[in-house]
Structures are given as C-alpha cells and as structure tokens.
From TrEMBL:
Full protein name: 12S rRNA N(4)-cytidine methyltransferase METTL15
Recorded GO MF terms: rRNA (cytosine-N4-)-methyltransferase activity
GO biological process: rRNA base methylation
Lineage: Eukaryota, Metazoa, Chordata, Craniata, Vertebrata
Keyword Hydrolase listed: no
Superkingdom, taxonomy of origin: Eukaryota
Database matches in NCBIfam families: 16S rRNA (cytosine(1402)-N(4))-methyltransferase RsmH
Principal location: mitochondrion
Amino acid sequence: MSWAVTSQQVSARSFSRLWKAALVESRARQPQCWCLRVSQLSANPHAFTSRRPVHQDSMKESSISAGKELHTPVMLKEVLHCLGLKPGQVFLDMTFGAGGHTKAILSAVPDVRVYALDRDPVAFHMMRQLSEEHKSQVTPLLGRFSELRDLLSQRGVGPGSLDAVLLDAGCSSMQFDCPERGFSLSKDGPLDMRMDGNRYPDMPNAADVVNALDQQALASILSTYGEERHAKKIASAIVEARSIYPITRTQQLASIVAGAFSASALYARKDLLQRPAHVATKTFQALRIFVNDELNELYAGLQAAETLLKPGGRLCVLTFHSLEDRVAKRFFQGVDQAVRPCHNIREKIRQRRAQELEEKEDEAVAATRWAYLQNRVMTPLMEEVQDNPRGRSAKLRVACKL
Ligand SMILES: C[S@@+](CC[C@H](N)C(=O)[O-])C[C@H]1O[C@@H](n2cnc3c(N)ncnc32)[C@H](O)[C@@H]1O
C-alpha cells in the first residue's frame, strides 16, 4: 500500500520519477529540460528504470564526509527500558545512524544479537566498524526499510525471528550537519538531501525537484510534506527564481523562500522550544521527505517489523513530526493508511473532527494486532530537551506484537 494521502499528492510523487525518466533517456542535464511539465511525459510512465542500487563495494565510502559531531540518541533510557531485551535475545536496529542506541544495548544486554540497518552508506561504514569490535554479535545491513525483509532472509532470518525492533525515524545529526549532504538550512551546500544518493545516483535530488516540477506540484509537496500554509506563495517564488537561474544550493533556496516573505516574517515562526525558526524550515522538511520517500518507507518499515517480530516481541518507534507520528499511530491502530482527499471545507472540518476523536481514542484503543505497552505516548524529559534540542519533538510509541 502506498502513503496515498490525496490523488494530487500521489501524482506529485510520480512527477519526480517521470521527470527523471526524461533525464535518464535524454542524458541531458540542461536547463531547458528542467522546466518540462511532467504531464508531457506521462505517455511513458515506465521509462524510469535506473533504480537499481550501486553495489556497495564499488562505492567510495571514504569520499562521503561524515559530519564531525555524532548523533545524540534520543530517549535512550526510555528506549532501553521499553525494548525489554534479555541476554541472548535478537534485536534489530532499523535506523543505526551513529549507532548510539545499538551501542547502549550492546553494553547493557549480555550476548544480545544485533541486526543493524541503515540506508545511508556513512552509517553503514560505522556499523561495519562496530561489527569488527563485536564480531559475533553485530550484523551490518545496508539498505532501506523496503529492502529489509530480503536483506534478512538472505542471512537466514525469516518471519517471527526477532525479539525487539527499534525504528528511530528521520535523519541523523550526521546528515543534517554535513553541508555537502544538502539537508542544512543554515550551512551552504549542494541542494541534495538524498540519504542514499551514492547508492542510487539516478534518484532525483532536491535540486532536481525544485527545478523540474511545475508550480502546482511543488505547492502540493510543500503543503503535504511540510504542512506549509504558504505553499502556493513559496512555490511561485521558486518558479520565478529558477526562470532566471537554476536553484542548486541550500542557501540559495533558503533566500528564495525568505524573499517571498516580509523581513519581519523571516523568524516569526517559533519551534517547540519557542526559538525562532527560519521561514524555510518547512520547505526543507517537505523536500527531504519527498526526495527520500520517507512516509512510504516508514510504513514499509513498520510492516516489515511486524512480520519479523515474534509474537510478544516489542516494537519501539521514535517519530519527530506529526506526519511520521500519524503513520505510526495508524499503523498500531490497524487503521488504513490511505486518507480520502479533502475536496471542500465541510469535508476538511469532518476530517479534522475525526482526527481529534482518533487522537482522544488513541491511547485507549487496543489495536487488533498490537498492544501498547504504556498508556501514553512518551516524550523526552525537559532535561533531555535542554541537552539535545533536536529531540524536542520526539514521540515514542511502544507496542507488543500479539
Ligand atoms: C534519527 S537517525 C537514527 C539515529 C540512531 N538511532 C543513533 O542513535 O545514532 C535515523 C537514521 O535512519 C536512517 N533511515 C531513514 N530512513 C531509512 C530507511 N527508509 N531505510 C533505512 N534507513 C533509514 C537514516 O539514514 C538515519 O541514519
């Protein structure tokens, strides 16, 4: 099943692939190709074929510069407690990152067997180093959530084999803090944002998206994946700017978005800690989610975890924004992930009411295939947020497979 929020958004997803097909076919990365309306390409929707990963051995991992600061694992104590691992059990870390959670588990639980996954080759490199130190305990896996079942079955790990799984969604600080990766709003770099661009060189990056898609598709991406109220205004500013010069840098995009607002609006938005947030923050979030297909991947990951866990096994999910959290919440509730599109204001109001009701029921509803382990969704303590503001919006859901 796909994370099909509305038909418009589904087409926004396929726009990217269709446009890439034109690039792959023409081999022409030229400005005149960037503004192709994707509708012109729809005659050949299957042309996008170059999604096969580059073999890991052919990659120059050393050429990918990891950020200097490592990632601080979020809600570490709570995660360790909720996973409830016992000596000799089998654990899967679906989002290894810098390995903070896995390392803590290795030191807390004797003889634990760890399968570690990440789509990012930088994280994989770190996993391999850790597996050298813990030879018989850690198995590193490079790939996406959607590839997990195959990766594990190649190693003889089938359905119902795992005691606990952790999915710590989103990006790591190593990704955000490395300007060359193109995720950062504050540091200039190429507008890339792909978590595994080296493995999938033909996968469109954020610059491809902002330079190729038409205004409506861009606005749809910004409003869907960034929940950006000013999506149309920002999309219009992007289209206008790229008609003069292609958008290739993170700071260039941040200035274009800023240019669509008055000076007083630039930092008028506040984050959860009431700190000023740049007006382009939601634009960057939307592009990152779109480029990496994060919500579909998240859903695929949750499904894979369910298959791989033993009955009684535990799944801990850390999310960092409302879109991710909604996917996790609905998954545990067994709710269909596809939401009907909002056609008019009445329907929007109806949906909002249904959502509020769902939120009220959330903690009480016993999912058919899952039992929540705590009554409430857990959030980080204030002291943790002060030490690590990046974790401020974390929500931890833990459930036991029935
Ligand atoms: C928040 S970080 C995890 C940090 C980690 N728990 C730690 O303590 O260092 C999320 C990680 O998940 C990875 N990731 C995101 N989406 C993924 C996917 N679909 N498949 C595999 N890995 C993914 C990212 O590359 C990133 O390294």
